[in-house]
Sequence to fold (90 residues):
Amino acid sequence: MPERYGPWDRVYDLFRRWQRDGTWARIVTQPQAEAAAKGLITWDVNVDSTVCRAHQHAAAAVKRGISGTNRPAGSPSCRPTTGSDAPGAA
Fold:
């Protein structure tokens, strides 16, 4: 940290105080709201795939000594799972 900011613990204390009192939230939301009101922001959805977890069978996990590639096409473990197939789904 540059010396002009002072001791690191004082900088951290100020950061935490601003975090608790909502200063950081205002720093982000106020300009964002102004830009949105002017139509300068396009609100598109972006999903980062690093947070999407694959089912264990999607990774070709071996089950009972048979790999997923050797199972018949109609076997239950080869078909996609839907919400209604989930355990406890009504």
The CA atoms of residues 84 and 90 lie 7 Å apart.
